[in-house]
Amino acid sequence: MSLLNGHRSRRNSYAQRKKSVADAPSRARKTGGNRRKNVEQKKSKRGLHLRLPSVRVSSRGVLLLIRWVLALSLVGLFFFGAGVGLIKAYNFCTTSDYFAITDIRVTGNSQIKTEDILQACGLRKGENSLLVNVHDAEQKLVSNPWIESVSIRRQLPGAFVVTVKERVPLFCARKDNTLYYINAAGEIIAPVSTSNFRSLPVLEIGPGGDEALPMVAAFVEEFRHAGFPFDISQISWIRLSAGGGFELYWETRRLRLSIGVENWKDNLRRIASVVTDIEKRKETVMVTSIRAADGQVWMTKATKQE
C-alpha cells in the first residue's frame, strides 16, 4: 500500500507541475493585456487633463477695438462721399453749357483748308470741351500726309488753338508712273491730283544724279538768296546728273542754266550775276543756255532761226 501510495503521489505531483507549466503562458498573456490597458488608461487620463489657454478681455481692449472700428468706418464714409461728389461734379461739368466749345482757331495752314482740319480732328462748336481727347485729335491730324506736326491747346472754358506745321512741296517727281509732290529734302508728300494741283517744277534724276539729291534742300535755299531775277517757282524743271550737275529751265525766257556740282555755291552766285546782268540789258532772249563750272561761265547765244 505504501508503495502504491507512493506512486500515486508522484503522479499527482507530476500532473500538477505539468498543469502549472501549461497555465503559465495564459497568465503571462493576461498580465501583458493588463499592461496595455493601463497604459491606454493613463494616456486617456493625461489627455483629459489638457487645459485650454485662457483669454483675458479687459475693458481697455474693448474700447480700443471700438475706436478702431469707428475710425475705419469714418474713413470709409469719407472716401465714399468723396467718390460720389467727384462723380456728380464730373457729370455736371461734362453736361454744363459753361464748357461748350465756342471758339476754335487754326494757325499755320496754307496747303489745307481750315474746314478740312477741323473735320479731320473732330473739333466742333457746341460740344463739351472737357470731353475732347486732345491726344487723339492730334494723332488724327498727323496722319494727314500734308501735316508734319500739330499742337492743340485747350483754353477753358470753351476755346481751342490748333497750330499746324505743313510739309511744303517744292517739286514734283515721277515714281512708278505716278507724279508725287516732294519737299526740299526729297521726301514724298502726296500724289498729284486735280484737287491738290500746284504748278511746281518737275525734279528729274539723271545718270549719277542720286549723289546730288541730298544737296537739293541746300541748293534751293541758296538759290533764293543768290539774287536771281526770277523765283524758283518760275522754273519748269530741275534735272540732276553727274555730267550736267544742277540743270534748270527758265520757261518764260526759254533759258537753260547749268551749275556744276563741285563748288556749286560759287558757281550759283556767278551764274546769278550773269543772268541778272543780261536781264537788265534785255539780252536774255539772245541766250539759250548758261553754264557755270570750274570758276568760269559760258553762254550759248541763240541762232537767228530760234
Rg from Cα = 54 Å
Q: Judging by the overall fold, what is the CATH architecture of one domain?
A: 3-Layer(aba) Sandwich
The number of helices is 6
| Poorly predicted tracts of residues | 1-9, 26-31
- SS-derived structural category: alpha/beta
The topology string of helices and strands comes to HHEHHEEEEEEHEEEHEE
> What's the number of extended β-strand segments?
12
Strand order, sheet with most strands: 7-8-9-10-11-12
Rounded to the nearest angstrom, the distance between the terminal CA atoms is 187 Å
In the CATH hierarchy, what is the class of one domain?
Alpha Beta
The CATH superfamily of one domain turns out to be: Cell division protein FtsQ/DivIB
Shape: elongated
Averaged pLDDT: 79
| Percent strand | 15-25%
Percent of residues in helices: 40-55%
CATH topology of one domain: Rossmann fold
Largest sheet, if any? 6 strands, mixed
